[in-house]
């Protein structure tokens, strides 16, 4: 069956390890779009630092962001769906991070908030620069009027392993996912890339069998298993590869272009 929608993770999938969208990958996506396939970027990033890649390719449509918590229209930047999380339940996680020295940020659809943006450590500042994110100062809860999309803890892999092990013993009111070696995300319990992709596909009348999803990490598994063709990058953990139907080349070997050429443009 013809692929009508291509859902693509961004970091570690669409981009290489230098956070670059290569010319070959870009040209391949444009060709697939001209052939009739809709391109939907599905990222742990927010809309503000996901939409620019669509604009760079001259593509309109939708992006699924914050690991599925926020779906936004590219041209208008309108939020068309939001799995808003309960901010009051975050207090124990904020306290844990502050007492254990774990960096965290709180995300609305288009805002990213931290305790002290002017005093960020170099590693943290470089991380935000790589993701094209500009952190703002976290206000008091009473002043936070926007719906919340995601809570993220960031740190060395050993620290994140310990945080994940600890939080896994809690009675979590949220969906917790590992979106990278250095990131743990908390979201609305129903939020995921797969759930958001399902909602978007149903709204557009597209069947799962008409969707190809490509990703490289644990937060991509729900969309890889929802899509009729789930493709894992070669740089994925083994559990992600096992959840996919196919494995393509790594992000540094332009695996997205290779997968689209094989499963979309060659049929």
Q: Describe the main β-sheet briefly.
A: 8 strands, mixed
The helix-strand sequence is EHHEHEEEHEEHEEHEEHEHEHEH
Number of domains: 2
Distance between the termini: 9 Å
Total strands: 14
Radius of gyration, in Å, reads 18 Å
Question: Tally the helices: what do you get?
Answer: 10
- Tell me which CATH architecture of the largest domain applies here: 3-Layer(aba) Sandwich
* Residue share in β-strands: 15-25%
Low-pLDDT stretches are none
Share of residues in helices: 25-40%
Order of strands across the biggest sheet? 5-4-3-2-1-12-13-14
CATH topology of the largest domain: Rossmann fold
Give the overall pLDDT as a whole number.
95
CATH superfamily of the largest domain, please?
HAD superfamily/HAD-like
- Molecular shape: globular
Broad structural category? alpha/beta
CATH class of the largest domain: Alpha Beta
